Amino acid sequence: MIYKSLIKTIIISGLTIGLCVGAVAQKKSGVSNLTSSTCYQGSETFLGNRDDLSGLMYGNSFVLRGEGEWDSRYLTISINHGTSFHGQFVSGGSWSLAIIDANGYVGTIYGIVTDGEIQSTTNLNGIDSVRIASLRLLATGGEGVFAESQKKPVVSEFELTTNTNTLETTGRGLNEY
Domain span at residue 24? Predict the structure, then answer.
């Protein structure tokens, strides 16, 4: 029984690594966006605070680091989420992405998490083993090179995959428009 749960975790990890390799190949081909061209690795740092009245979990936080071909990226995401009869949903949150290259600090872009959903895979004991959060990030401002570039909003779809046993988290951008 534990064997099947382990196989699921290995398959999901393999898929995540494969998608990250594809994103690296995309970056080398000259296509570069804020989130979709970098694979992020880090951890879930805070599970959040539960509001007993509403049932929402506030402040579920993640800290991730990504290596681009020319830069390092530091991403923090905090989400609020709950459960409805349709499943788990994301009701908001915030994020920031700081970029540093060989010359030093490039800039920070930040914004809100507008919405999203969470899917969980459970092991044979009924305990979550992998949690995937699909998020929509909206940029609301920036500093450094991003201070004046916010003439139009940047929206990015981002996915976090967390091993709930170790809290290790990987992230990748899906689309940016």
Answer: 2-176
